Amino acid sequence: MRAQIATGLIVMGLAAPAPPAAADTLRGKSYIIELSSSQYASGYGEYLLPPLLSVLDRSGMRAKNGPGADVVVNIVTDSDVGRWTGAGAGREWIYTISATVGLSPESHVIPPDGTPAFGIRAVLETPNPDRQDEWDCLIALAARTAIANADPGKTGVRRTDGQSCLRGGG
Hints:
Elements: E1 3-4, E2 9-12, E3 30-36, H1 37-42, H2 45-57, E4 62-63, E5 71-79, E6 83-85, E7 92-105, E8 118-126, H3 132-149, E9 156-161
Parallel strand pairs: 3-4, 3-5, 8-9
Antiparallel strand pairs: 1-5, 2-3, 5-7, 6-7, 7-8
Helix pairs in contact: 2-3
């Protein structure tokens, strides 16, 4: 069974300063962040937004409140139920978790599953799927990689290795 957060959508515009540093294709563009209704209603957005905003603040993009943004940014998280790896004393229960940060033009209707026009899915194998520091790192990695690789001609979700986000321990 996979735990995935994505249902009806709620749009949040967040004003934050954005010093230049993004890929040239996004520098100066406006953005709005779109959370699913379950992310928003459950309070989960409070955990998702800080690492995302940290990257967006340095992206050269500018926050826009309300409709009319150039780019819609969204986050989808995912985790499996885990599996045994290794053998003998080295046997360990490992989970695969991922954070996808999407960049879509405002005209792209993000479906209930959260699939963006273009996005990066950072994937990590970890013994503890609940470590906030690992989630923060994955979200930031996915956001930085998506911004660095943004190009109007690119579509689809690409995967990046998130093992650098492993903090260890259970």
